[in-house]
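Project standup — Tuesday

K.O.: blocked on the structure for the chain from last sprint. Re-posting the sequence here as requested.
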Amino acid sequence: MITLDDIPKESLTFKFIHASGPGGQHVNKASTAVELSIDLNILGQPSGLINRLKLKNPSRVNKRGYLVLQVDNFRSQHRNRNQALELLLKLLNDAAKIPKKRIPTKPTRSAKKRRLDAKKQRGSIKTQRKPPKLD
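H.V.: unblocked you, prediction finished:
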């Protein structure tokens, strides 16, 4: 489990921008939305975790190797900043989970038999729908 203490502060860059949406005149004057940029090169996490993070979030990682998160859910900078940090921790912890390797299995003999029996039954239903042959 990754916490904020595991992330070096120099890898995080906060930028406050104008948010869109409701808020009246306040939204035009205050920069409440947060853009959090994380330098993945100095994040200090294993390379496998960084690779999984890049694979799971390709639209959030730019060419320079920065993970960029934009949050404008709330009308205050403080709450948006906390939300961005929570989102970062969620993404890192999701990428930290190593996926289980799938072991391919074959259908059992009884499963094959059930499938073939069902196909035969379905075929016999369809043959009964045909009009009788006039020989």
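K.O.: great, moving the ticket to review. Strands lie at 12-17, 33-39, 66-71. The chain has a mean pLDDT of 89.
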